[in-house]
Write a structure and sequence with these properties.
529 residues, alpha+beta, four-stranded antiparallel sheet, two-stranded antiparallel ribbon
């Protein structure tokens, strides 16, 4: 039973990446749009102060904000596509239709019951979704309908009929079944959602009343769940629902920390960013803390292994600092020294607490590139971003001395301190070749992908292949066929996680190229023995 629950969570976790990973792109583009309308930048670069560039910036940031007020439909379609076992594009299309049916069914039923509020909807629990007045279910509506659509789709997508009814088979039958389900759910949620809404609001109040202790738990849990691949299930509700705060920006109501600060970025007349931005300050341990940990591991490496340790740790540290991808570092000590990982998680939580105490409003979800794009154009009075760097440098020092002490105290076999005969290794030669490849260049032809497929038990053992920022995520028929030694020693994997039939292989930033190569091998049906 426990394994089945974990498998379900893993599948949901993989599906969530479809909408979750695309939204930061919208945020970066909003920040770029803000650059073209930023008053300070226009003073420094007066040639940008013209109707063409400022108009472009206004249109870019303003148009992308529309995504934030329609997250329900984004999550609905994204989840349906991610959870569908087959015919994914059709599942997404049907999910969109189901979403439209739901909001209109709820609106009509509320109208018949005399429940629609007239005038200003703020504070009434109702809102406008795609021009339709309904209960304010926010992103939860999209998540729920995406799951429901996927369940119906997976059950009936292969249903076929004979003779005259043949045209009603397949995904068309999915839509036929889904319509009454969605209409009934719209009626049902008209009555039960206010109770859920009350519970969510109470939870949000509890978390906010917990103050810094709540922030500490949030930051710590988000890191502790890295080995399971479920860590984004901790932060996603805070970024996109009212658990992360509710704020009015330029006359519109936004829910969730990320939605709020994206809207504030697009609003040039705003002041200090909302306090809810703290829920997306997770990058401080990525940019500073783990760099200190890397330096400690290097200094404590054996003299004969220092050169090898340096060659391994520098690329991992740069990746963490620049892009916020931390798994290559975390997996280097997670299993050989679990205490270090627990300490790392706790320090990550504490760093967010200190930022909150100092009233730092800098945006810092990932690495240094995002940090510069988001914060510098907004100015120090809106973000207090220099203090973020000061806090980061402080935790760099704390990480360094604490990791150095613990490695020495418990003689942990971190990188460069392996037993005699063991290889000092995190990346393989092929891994370095891929990292040094020119953009758009294929990842070391298909040789690496053939090795990966073979190490995963062959093509017939692989049911599904997806990826997130840094991990190849697979569903395997028999996970016991996985050869972890080959994956680590010959393909450069820095970690392998097994949960039932779900297997995750950590590769870092080159995972997209690896995923494409694996897809090519599977599509060609070629597996090297």
């Amino acid at each position: 039973m426990k394994e089945r629950v974990m498998d379900t969570m893993q599948k949901f976790s993989k599906a969530m990446f479809i909408p979750v990973l695309i939204l930061p792109i919208a945020g970066i583009l909003i920040a770029i749009g803000n650059l073209f309308t930023n008053a300070r930048l226009l003073e420094v670069l007066p040639f940008l102060n013209n109707p063409v560039t400022t108009g472009f910036g206004t249109i870019l940031s303003g148009s992308l904000v529309s995504i934030l007020v329609n997250l329900g439909v984004v999550f609905c379609v994204g989840l349906a596509v991610g959870l569908a076992n087959k015919k994914k594009s059709e599942a997404g299309f049907i999910a969109l239709l189901g979403y439209l049916v739901f909001i209109n069914a709820m609106n009509r039923f509320m109208g018949l019951q005399g429940m629609l509020v007239e005038g200003n909807l703020q504070g009434t629990g109702q809102t406008m979704v795609l021009g339709v007045q309904v209960l304010d279910m926010g992103v939860f509506l999209g998540i729920f309908l995406g799951i429901v659509t996927a369940i119906v789709h997976n059950r009936y997508a292969d249903k076929e009929f004979n003779n005259a009814f043949q045209i009603y088979g397949g995904t068309r039958f999915v839509f036929i079944v889904l319509i009454p389900v969605v209409v009934l759910l719209a009626i049902l949620f008209t009555y039960i959602w206010p109770f859920f809404q009350g519970g969510i609001s109470s939870l949000g109040v509890l978390i906010n009343q917990s103050g810094n202790f709540g922030i500490f738990l949030y930051g710590t849990l988000e890191r502790l769940l890295i080995p399971t691949g479920l860590h984004h299930l901790v932060y996603t509700p805070f970024l996109y629902t009212e658990l992360g705060g509710v704020a009015e920006v330029a006359g519109e109501i936004f829910e969730g920390a990320r939605n709020i600060y994206f809207a504030e970025i697009a609003n040039a007349d705003g002041g200090l960013l909302a306090p809810s931005v703290i829920w997306d300050a997770r990058g401080i341990s990525k940019m500073f803390g783990l760099i200190g940990a890397c330096l400690a591991m290097y200094h404590k490496a054996s003299p004969e292994n220092k050169a090898k340790a340096r060659a391994i740790l520098i690329p991992a540290a740069v990746t963490s600092f620049i892009a916020g991808v931390t798994e290559p570092i975390e997996f280097s000590f997670m299993f050989v020294a679990p205490l270090l990982f627990i300490v790392h998680a706790g320090l990550s939580g504490l760093s967010m607490v200190l930022l909150n105490i100092l009233n730092v409003r800098a945006i810092g979800p990932n690495g240094f590139i995002d940090f510069l794009l988001y914060n510098v154009p907004l100015g120090t009075e809106r973000t207090a971003w220099p203090m973020y760097i000061v806090v980061g440098l402080f935790f760099f020092v704390v990480y360094y001395f604490l990791f150095r002490f613990l490695i020495t105290k418990f003689d942990y076999k971190t990188i460069g301190r392996e037993e005699s005969g063991q290889e000092t290794k995190l990346y393989s030669k092929k891994d370095y070749q891929e990292k040094n490849a020119q953009p758009g260049e294929p990842a070391n032809d298909l040789g690496l992908a053939h090795t990966i497929v073979a190490a995963l038990g062959g093509e017939e053992n692989i049911e599904t292949v997806t990826n997130c920022y840094s991990r190849l995520r697979l569903t395997l028929t028999d996970p016991e066929k996985v050869n972890e030694g080959i994956l680590k020693n010959e393909t450069g994997a820095s970690g392998i996680i097994k949960k039932g039939q779900n297997v995750q292989v950590v590769y870092g930033l080159q995972v997209n190229a690896i995923r494409k190569s694996v897809d090519n091998v599977l599509n060609r049906g070629i597996v090297e023995e």
